[in-house]
Design goal:
Strands 6, 7, 8, 9 and 14 form a five-stranded mixed beta sheet that branches. Helix 2 packs antiparallel against helix 3, helix 13 packs antiparallel against helix 24 and helix 16 packs antiparallel against helix 23. This protein is elongated. With about 675 residues, it is of the alpha+beta class.
Length: about 675
Amino acid sequence: MAKKFSIILALAVLLFLAGCQQQATPADRLKEYIEHWNNGEFSEMYTAYLNSGTKEAYASEDFVERQQKLYEDLAIENVEVTYTKPDEDAKWDTEKPADFPVQVKMDTLAGPVEFEKSMTLLFETKEETEDWFVEWDPSFIFEQLEKGDEVQVSTTKSVRGEILDRNKQPIAINGTGFNIGVVPENFTEASAKEDLANVLGVSVASIDEKLGQSWVQDNQFVPISKAAKNDTELLEKATAIPGATYQETAMREYPYGEALGHLSGYIGPITAEKLEELKEQGYTDTDSIGRRGLEQILEERLHGANGVKIVIAKQGENGEEVTVAETPAENGETIILTIDAELQKSTYESMKGEAGTSAAVNPETGETLVLVSSPAYDPNEYMLGISESRFKELSEDPLNPLFNRFGAAYAPGSTIKPVTAAIGMEAGALDPAQGLQIDGATWQKDGSWGDYRVSRLHPEAPNPIDLNKALVYSDNIYFARQALEMGNETFVAGLKNFGFGEEIPFALELQPSQISNEGTLGSEGQLADTSFGQGQMLTNILHLATMYQPFLTDGIMYKPLLYMEEEKGQVWKEGVLSAENAAILRKGMRNVVVDGYAQSANSSSVKIAGKTGTAELKGAIGEEGQENGFFVAYDSEKPDFILAMMVESIEDDGGSDYVAGFATKVFEEYKQNR
């Protein structure tokens, strides 16, 4: 009897406890639902929390799959859903709906979205479960979204930024060009297709492919290839073919063509590999991207950012569009260079297609005015899509127009002699007025040098040889003896004061100038060779022009600049030369032109000062090597710029005076036009 009573009592207690256990409140259920919402757990939200009416109206794919796809397509992230909590003593009537203000925030590819709505929970019995369930509709995805509406994304293309020179002349701009194509009903002659393929440098198959596109109509213009605005020859050849014509179209233009080709670079269609890398930055498969030169280096600044808009296309015939979020397009920057495009063009043309390079700098500010690589390619050709035959022609050209020479470094020859003299004078080892007795065409210190001897080109120079005569006659023996006098350590330290052995502080990557491969001088012979710009010494053409600044600024070298936005007159090196010694070297370099062997620079209209140089590149045993000619110069009366020019293989052109003639044309034209 007692046992039976115990069982009955236990059952009564359980029933009592069950009756006392609190039913989950709508606030509790909403809290759980929102946790799943913030975590993007749509399947759990649909299965366990939506009320019967919602599930009847919206199938699982309308709720789960749609939201998952929208999150992916619209790059929805940082979802933050909150609700306004009820009072702690709030009473809930299961016969009535429970309403809660819900706040929704998220980031999308078109910008942030934020709204507040009232969410309703209803008390329902499902099978043997009684609980509160959420009443849902698409407006909880986006506030204005209703059943049957579509969510769409539109993109507004940004406008690529332009590159201008210091005088706002166009270097790389958004201009126009031409689409060359055909109207099929007029393009019927048997030979026309092959003729057009030959003119455009494309295959007949590629023309057939474009004519076979699904949208093509007999009376519609079908683009086949592109042409730059100034390529009148190509337009004339193409339109001479029956049925071929052209239409103007928006296009990137490079008005200075080859003269600025290596500096400007060009744009081209984005590759699949690059698109994968940059798609998070808003690039699409229809975008163009910088491929070479400044177009590539400045891509991030030039490209800008496309605008993106998320809209709801309302249902019905007259459905309106409602904007959910929008980020307007941000156009690329306009970038102004320190380059003087007309001076660059003049310099490029003066070199007459010879292989070489030139640089010009403002001696008072460090601004780079010219940066030429000759010969060059026309960036308009590449931007339009260069043909295989044309690319092969450029690639196989013995002058190598695809090689960027201003980025490389070369043995400077005798153009380094003023620097050697400056180092010696500053060290107190070289007295410019003291003459040396130098006899004969060759010299060596003593028998320990073996077969090595220093040669000079003008043994007729009258003794004694002082600094002025050494510059005028470009006497290698004089400078070799002065370098030996100042010693290895002093000479190397002096070269480092002029920037040798360190990265050139410039916007573009340029090969640093070097004293030698190891950065040291291992023998007296190497010291002698280096004193007149041979041995293993190499200099970059922009650095070479910059090294002449201290002769005009009384000892200051400025950081070379490329962008007008940069602060002018940033000191790179200072105290490398006294005012007194600078004046001596200026006088000597003027005498090089007046009395020496740079007579092509002895202009009647411009009083040029400077130094020539010839660097011999060793050939095979028994063969004479190639000679590169240099001239570094300025207008001694109005030194607006220092010009350094190098031309390869001048051994059959009369030496470095050949280069001085090219440079002189630049100075004369500049003076005439300014």
